[in-house]
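Hi C.,

You asked whether I'd gotten around to modeling the 87-residue construct. I have! Everything is below, sequence then structure, no commentary in between.
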Amino acid sequence: MKSTGIVRKVDELGRVVLPIELRRNLDINEKDALEIFVDDDRIILKKYEPADIFNGSMEDLIDYKGKKIARKTVLELARIAGYKVSE
């Protein structure tokens, strides 16, 4: 892990401001979602990128009832369900 030397305080509402330099370097824009991970005593923020809920793929996604699914997964599920699918 690389230290940036930047220190920020948590405000009374639990917010922390990410400096513009970090946001630019990591391509984080206003309204972007950040995923929060905990690793022992560390909090890790990562720009959220939606992925297929079944296999984690991030390619050729479609939205189904608010969930992301890869088209390839849809075809595979159709085959498993017994439907003849042509690609």
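If it helps when you're writing up: Residues 71-80 form the longest helix (10 residues).

Thanks,
B.
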